[in-house]
Specification:
Length: about 450
């Protein structure tokens, strides 16, 4: 990543402050994402739409998500992070404005498209920036903390926005989010900067041996990268379904009231945040004890997603009550906990020069899950004998997807193996061999 010239932020920025700001960035990101789900029953009522149309609206968020992710990966080496992340957050705010008053379904679709496009590069950009502030062996925990913002955002948003939705109107929730986003932009304009490792090629698992001019296409063809894509695809099916549908599932499927559903959501997202940070800490401890990146990151992240799949499969079998709520928390926490760890895997196999591109393509590939999964869930809910029966069918399919993704991740992710191959094979030899073989699919996971 190109290092920007010294700036006014350079004298005030510190690694911990940057992590805090990026944590808040991801909080705002996911709060913006979940607001439609929190107000789902009210939005369906006021707009006169059914569950399938609501699922279409939730899925539309991801239609331009890959475009934004790839564009962000391209721009991250050309635009200073202060301007780039501020611009992204300003687009989020712009997408919220029409929803402060409209009841039009077409406008809802258009604003979700814009929000998805502008949120596409968010995680990749935040990851690239936070990695410039830490050496390779210290990246897992800060990356996990930044990723945990994706869980803390809904954790805070669920009770706060549910209050405004119930006490005032669901339009008010969008006003609140707009104000919060504006405050973050102002703070980032004064604080945001890259760190001292912006030009470093350091990485764990021997990635310091990688050629600094390694083409991104060679990284994309590794088993580790493809394994991470599949693992993220499965995990993002979980995130997109539960972000978009969990509030409706709790209220319309299980019969909880708005505030009770908000409390369950808050507990679930609290479990996700703790699991993300906890698993990052555990992975870091394993690395310090000499465990390979394959074990400390690949196996840990894949196993966590598999546990989430088992818990999701258990949900339809349990009666409404505390045990089911506990399983909701375990399912969400385990399936999401491996995110920070898995992002660190990409830095193991990608030099800084191509890391933004590689992360952007990763986000674009797994975001396809976000476009498909909520829409499919909506179709199942509308087509079933009852709302609960539709949700149970969808959760069963989701559990199977998570298990399959976990198994593929366990089989393919091996950073040490792929670093050796990338370091040993000359670029022209690898590219020549690749040209004579079918290209491995990146986004068809």
């Amino acid at each position: 990543m190109a290092t920007a010239s010294p700036s006014r932020a350079a004298s005030t920025a510190s690694p911990h402050l940057i992590v805090l700001m990026l944590f808040a960035f991801m909080m705002v990101n996911f709060a913006d994402k979940v607001v439609v789900g929190l107000a789902g029953p009210e939005i369906m009522r006021d707009m006169g739409i059914d569950a399938e149309q609501f699922g279409l609206a939730q899925g539309s968020f991801y239609w331009l998500f890959p475009v934004g992710a790839i564009l962000g990966g391209y721009l991250v080496r050309r635009v200073h992070p202060r301007a780039l992340l501020s611009g992204v957050a300003l687009l989020w705010m712009l997408s919220l404005v029409p929803m402060m008053w409209t009841n039009d379904f077409g406008v809802l679709l258009a604003t979700r498209l814009l929000l998805g496009f502008s949120e596409g590069p968010a995680m990749a950009l935040a990851t690239v920036v936070v990695h410039t502030w830490f050496t390779a062996e210290r990246r897992t925990v800060p990356t996990s903390i930044v990723t945990a913002g994706a869980a803390v955002g809904p954790l805070v948003a669920a009770p706060v926005l549910s209050y405004f939705i119930a006490a005032h109107h669901w339009h008010t929730a969008f006003v609140v989010l707009g104000v919060v986003g504006a405050l973050w932009v102002v703070a980032w304009l004064f604080i945001g900067d890259t760190g001292p490792h912006a030009a470093s090629t350091l990485a764990t698992a021997g990635a310091a041996e990688l050629p600094p001019d390694l083409p991104a296409r060679r990284v994309l063809r590794t088993g580790t990268y493809l394994g991470v894509v599949v693992l993220f695809f499965a995990a993002y099916c979980n995130v997109s379904v539960k972000t978009g549908w969990m509030p409706v599932y709790l209220r319309e499927g299980l019969g909880y009231g708005p505030q009770e559903a908000a409390r369950i959501l808050a507990m679930s997202y609290a479990a996700v945040a703790l699991a993300i940070v906890g698993l990052g800490w555990f992975s870091r401890r394993m690395t310090k004890r000499g465990k390979s990146s394959r074990i400390a990151r690949g196996v840990v992240a894949s196993t966590s997603v598999g546990v989430g799949g088992l818990a999701t499969l258990a949900l339809p079998q349990l009666p409404t009550g505390w045990l089911q709520v506990l399983m909701i928390m375990i399912a969400g926490a385990a399936a999401s906990a491996g995110y920070g760890v898995a992002y660190a895997i990409v830095s193991d196999i990608a030099p800084v020069r191509v890391r933004g591109t590689v992360l952007g393509i990763l986000v674009a590939a797994y975001s396809i899950a976000g476009a498909l999964a909520p829409t499919l869930m909506g179709g199942m809910v509308d087509g079933a004998a009852s709302v609960l029966a539709g949700f149970n069918q969808g959760l069963t399919v989701l559990g199977v997807v998570l298990l399959v993704g976990s198994i593929i991740g366990l089989l393919l992710i091996n950073p040490e193996r792929d670093v050796r191959r990338l370091s040993a094979a000359p670029a022209h030899a690898t590219d020549s061999a690749a040209a004579s073989a079918p290209a491995a699919p990146v986004s068809g996971a």
